[in-house]
Amino acid sequence: MAQSDDMFGDDDYPAYTMGRAAEIAGASQDFLRRLDEAKLITPFRSAGGHRRYSRYQLRLAARAREMVDQGTALEAACRIIILEDQLEEALQQNEKFRRRQEDGVA
Q: Which residues does the UniProt record annotate as the domain HTH merR-type (predicted)?
C-alpha cells in the first residue's frame, strides 16, 4: 500500500490518460499531441501504447496553453518553457552548491 501512496505524491508519476490530461490542462488532445511533437512533453506509454501524463507535464501543458492563448507561437512557447525549466534547475543546483560551500563540504 505504501508504494501506491508514494505514486500519488509523485509529480512525475504518469497518472492521467490523454482525455483526462486535456481536461485538466484546459487544452485539446490535439494540443497535447502538438506539445509532444514540439518536444515540450513526452508522454509515458502504457503497456497498450496509450499516452499517460504526469502532473508535472500537465503544468507545462497548461503554461504552454496560456502562452499560446496570449498570442505566442506554439514553438516559441515551448522553447521559452524549456529554457525557464532549465534555468530553474540550474538555480537549484547553484543553491545546493552554495550551501555545501558554506557548510565546508566540497
A: 15-83
pLDDT in tens, the chain (106 residues): 345 556 667 888 999 999 999 999 999 999 999 999 999 999 999 899 999 999 999 999 999 999 999 999 999 999 999 999 999 999 999 999 999 998 886 5
What string of DSSP letters covers 5-42?
Answer: HHHHT-TTS--EEHHHHHHHHTS-HHHHHHHHHTTS--
Strand partners, 52: 17, 44
Length of the chain measured in residues: 106
Q: Mind listing the domains of the chain with CATH numbers?
A: 2-102 (1.10.1660.10)
